[in-house]
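Listing S7. Sequence submitted for prediction.
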Amino acid sequence: MLVARVLITALVLAAAPRASAQAIDPKALVGAWRLVSWETTQADGTVRKSPMSVGSLMYSDSGRMCGVLMDPTRKTPSRPPTDDEIRAAYNGIVAYCGTYEVDSKAGFVVHHVDLEKSPANIGINRKRWFTLEGNRLSLKIDAAELPATQKESRLVWERVR
């Protein structure tokens, strides 16, 4: 009888919903963050560092966010710039702002884009799975947003003091 009770208790506990290990106060994201790294794992398993190696990310306590990343090796365009230089400058930066919502139990944040360098991206939602350890924030781009050639894309940020 005791064995049966122990087994039933174990089964009930195993089936019970649990709070995520990442469950945090959403305000823990508030502040300024500096990009440490952006790495993408390709479908074949190779890992590539993004040339966008400089960046800032900010979350406000009013529910707004803004992120800017750039390739620091972008060349200064000539005056006037050529079409190739304009294209390179445009492709060498990621920039968007909007509102955000945190689901701390599930471990993700959604960026609701209302300002972006490309008008085609205004109004989209960008889901980022997060882990927060000390002064490091890791944001993994949701798989639904990745091209078929990529398996994972993760940005690591460090809190700016």
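Caption to Listing S7: primary sequence and predicted structure tokens for the chain studied. DSSP finds two helices and nine strands in the chain. Confidence is low (pLDDT under 50) at residues 1-22.
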